[in-house]
Amino acid sequence: MMYAISTKYMLFLEKLKSIIQNKDTLTLWMNNLLVLYAFFLPIAQSIKAKIFIAILILFFIRGDVKYYLKEAWKNQVVRAFVYLFVIYVLGLLWSENIKEGLRWVKSIKYGLYLIVFYSFVDGRYIKRVLAAFISGMLLSEIISYGMILHILPWKFSLLGVTIYEAPTPVDPSPFLNHIHYGVALSLVVILLAQQIYLSHKPLIVKIFMSIFIFTASANIFVTGGRTGYVTFILLLLILAIFYLRKWAIIGLTFVILVVGIALETSPILQQKVQQTTLSAKQLLSKDPNFNTSMGIRAGMYYYGMKAIGNNLVFGVGTGDSMDVIRDTAPKEWEGRKQPHEHNQYFSTFMKLGFVGLLVFLNIFYQIFRYKQEDKELRFIMVFTTLTVAFGILTTQFNLRFFMPLWVVMLSITLIQKNRQTILRNLNDKQIMLQIIGAGMFFFILYIFLKGSH
Length: 453
Known about the structure:
The chain crosses the membrane at residues 49-65, 77-95, 130-152, 179-198, 203-222, 228-244, 249-269, 345-365, 377-395, 431-449. The chain is mostly helical. The protein has one domain. The protein contains 19 helices and two strands. The chain has helices spanning 2-21, 23-40, 45-62, 65-73, 76-90, 98-108, 113-120, 126-148, 178-198, 203-220, 226-244, 248-265, 267-283, 293-308, 321-328, 344-368, 375-391, 402-411, 428-452, and strands at 155-158, 161-165. A two-stranded antiparallel sheet has the order 1-2. Helix 11 (226-244) runs antiparallel to helix 17 (375-391).
């Protein structure tokens, strides 16, 4: 019996050795894991992080790292993300609060993931990655409606590990912060609208997509993220005016109809509109109130501009922006309790001055000028970038969603559809089973590690 076990063990080692030595198999699995990464992106940050570690390990095991880094460096968008990371690191040199600075460097490091993803993405995986992200959002939406209809609990745990939890009973965003959730739903609506308009999918599939568009649009307006409302409206306006053209009137009518229905039926939207209107009136008064939700954001700009002083060119340092704002603001200002500036553009300007802001804006410039001949990929690239651009007007990269989302979508749109990094023919059924199996493994690992703590 011991001999049989030993033989099986040796066969397993031989099989493992052959896999490790087969670069094509490693590349295949990196692509499989990227699909999983996209699925868990809007669902579980811890699982997503573990999947990236696995991808990174395979990246180094595959070898030829120097070659792949050189190839990635040739891409101007990849370089733009590297430059942003570098200037955030350099900003530590004139920071006093190094601990806080390192925290911000950590939030920007996700841009470097593009180097790895870009090195292995196979064109045949573009649709799989896109479908995985949309499926993750669909799962979130189903749970959200389940909570709204009191079919599902507001908090669900498995073996003592919290799987999801809504912030409040009136804010049904199960996995993401409500700002991120609303913005992500807005992107999904646009991606599905593009598929309906441009693709040749069967009618039944387009009907299902249309239903998802309607339910996702409604879901945006029953969560508490005002950024999601604004992003949704802006993206649909851009879609209608610049892309739908002869269907622009229908698109604009849809925007007006959805917003009108939401204003009449969504209590949380009505509440947010009233709060925003009141905050705006108080800000425009002779004695501005900087202690409302909108006022705190306005206070960031007001006290921040006073605090930056003579540091307009290079900023106050990667870790010092909130410290100098707190030193400048009055003690009674509620914004002193905030961990960040609630705006990535302004935060970068405070930390790294005009130089840092230009380096950051260079990413957008390089993306919009990128020569992507495929219209579908160009569309996804542009609208993902616009989504992130609007989303970070009221939040930042520190919550680990917008930057990874941006990088994943860029990794599948900077390449060509005919690009093949995997040299073999792909079996759809086999790949699906591999991805599901790997997904179950990472989910069980997550439960085990969380439960053990």
